[in-house]
Design a protein that fits this description.
- By secondary structure, the chain is an alpha/beta fold.
- It has one domain: Rossmann fold (3-Layer(aba) Sandwich), CATH 3.40.50.
- The chain contains six helices and nine strands.
- It has a seven-stranded mixed β-sheet with strand order 5-4-3-6-7-8-9. A two-stranded antiparallel sheet has the order 1-2.
- The mean pLDDT is 96.
- Bound molecules: S-adenosyl-L-homocysteine.
- The site of S-adenosyl-L-homocysteine has 24 residues, from strand 2, helix 4 and strand 4.
Length: 223
């Protein structure tokens, strides 16, 4: 009884804190897309971190997850999602599943979701967290995301949550005719720019959106 009451109070509190997060960290910094704000208010970030970090889940920064990786800052997830201009029916490829948090946000915004993670342990944990949160039909792959997931291409949007000095060429080939790709571009310890690539005739238009700091894209040999 007491445990149930505590759980329901905790859920109420998390909803309140999440609403504050959306207002103070996301809308206040200029994210306008109503669907993105709604998704950020809905997805339970605390369900994607370890128990000891639950009370800190709505803070304005990344938090540690296993394998020396991080769950992205909420604002970065929102900003990236807004760049993709998702309407609801898109097929999206995410590189760097990590905790599964951004995966959940993208699942709220798109039609079909494919996600690739290089660490099997993270992919397994994320998959369990996502299904515990009621997300169904997300397709997971363990491997080097630099290769994308050609079997399911083309994608309407591709998002990288790990930084590389240049976006691997193969990923562009997996984008559909009006495809958009958002990625942190830069060296591991150097300056990085969140960059949006969108189709422009035969090539791509490139726009630098913000200075960012993401964990680096690992290659098979790094691990
Ligand atoms: N969006 C995730 C962010 C995780 S951090 C979240 O909110 O939890 C970036 C992730 O990219 C890490 O989990 C890391 O293991 C993964 N990663 C790094 N290099 C990769 C690669 N080459 N292919 C796939 N995933 C990679």
């Amino acid at each position: 009884m007491f445990k149930d009451l505590l759980a329901s109070k905790f859920a109420e509190y998390q909803t309140f804190v999440r609403r504050r997060m959306v207002e103070d960290q996301i809308a206040a910094r200029g994210v306008r897309d109503g669907r993105v704000l709604e998704a950020m208010g809905k997805v339970r970030r605390h369900a994607f971190v370890d128990e000891y970090l639950r009370t800190r889940a709505y803070e304005d920064h990344p938090l540690p997850i296993d394998e020396g990786q991080t769950i992205s800052q909420p604002y970065m997830v929102a900003l990236t999602a807004e760049l993709l201009e998702l309407k609801g029916s898109e097929k999206v490829l995410e590189i760097g599943t990590g905790s599964g948090y951004q995966t959940a946000v993208l699942a709220e915004l798109a039609g079909e979701l494919y996600t690739v993670e290089i660490f099997p342990s993270l992919a397994e944990k994320a998959s369990a967290a996502l299904s515990a949160q009621g997300y169904r039909g997300i397709k997971f792959r363990t491997g080097d995301g630099a290769d994308g997931w050609p079997e399911h291409a083309p994608y309407d949007a591709i998002v990288l949550s790990c930084a590389a000095p240049a976006v691997p060429e193969g990923l562009f080939a997996q984008l559909g005719p009006d495809g958009r790709l958002a990625a942190p571009v830069g060296e591991a310890d150097g300056p990085q720019k969140l960059t949006l690539f969108s189709r422009d005739g035969a090539g791509f238009r490139e726009r630098s959106v913000a200075d960012v700091r993401f964990v680096p894209m690992l290659r098979r040999r790094d691990r």
